[in-house]
Amino acid sequence: MPSRAVIDTPLGHIALTWDDDGLTALDYVSDAPVSTPSPSSGLAAETIRQLRQYFQDPAFGFHLPLSPQGTPFQQRVWAALCRIPPGAPITYGQLARHLNTGPRAIGGACRRNPLPIIIPCHRVVPAHGGLGGYGGATRGAGPRIKQWLLVHEKTL
What we know:
Keywords: DNA damage, DNA repair, Methyltransferase, Transferase. By secondary structure, the chain is α+β, with helices and mostly antiparallel strands.
């Protein structure tokens, strides 16, 4: 049975969802009240600790058990995203060439990323400049959140 908690961050309220296998989702939820996880949830407490560390230090690397649900292709893209270091964004085309696929397919996998920030899809940008898309954020806040994350990591 999945568990959920909502935390306050510099980006607004974020809902964390997890099950016995690991963290399954991170969602931007502007209208949800903050709720603390059960004291028995070590994973939730550790996720919150690591998110706070990331917001203090953009070079911080996450080390959490993750359990995102997706196709084998999406899983492969998400694993590649986790290898992009903070402050070193790459283009959709560069990642596509690395994975022997097309930029649109990379964009689709990024859009379906259930764990933004932790699986850092914000580090993938268009070759022509600009931010590109950023899914997961509510009410059109995606570009603002992606820009915040890139500035936080000192890439813009």
